[in-house]
Design a protein that fits this description.
The chain has about 60 residues and is α+β, with helices and mostly antiparallel strands. The protein has one domain: 60s Ribosomal Protein L30, Chain: A. It contains one helix and three strands; from the N terminus they run βββα.
Length: about 60
Amino acid sequence: MARQIVFTSRAAKPPATYSQAVKAAGLVFVSGTAPQDPETGAIKGAKLPVKVPGLKVSIAAIAEA
């Protein structure tokens, strides 16, 4: 089965041994992500309600890639 590794600079960088997502068999498998600023790597916010919008942005960017 062929697979394609997905990467976008518009989302948080994954740890060295992970991919942001993998496309295979017509499906997209998105890995866990952190609420990091893609440019600085800094965690956005200290509390969950502040972090969730950043997570949504990262996951949307990965899905669009």
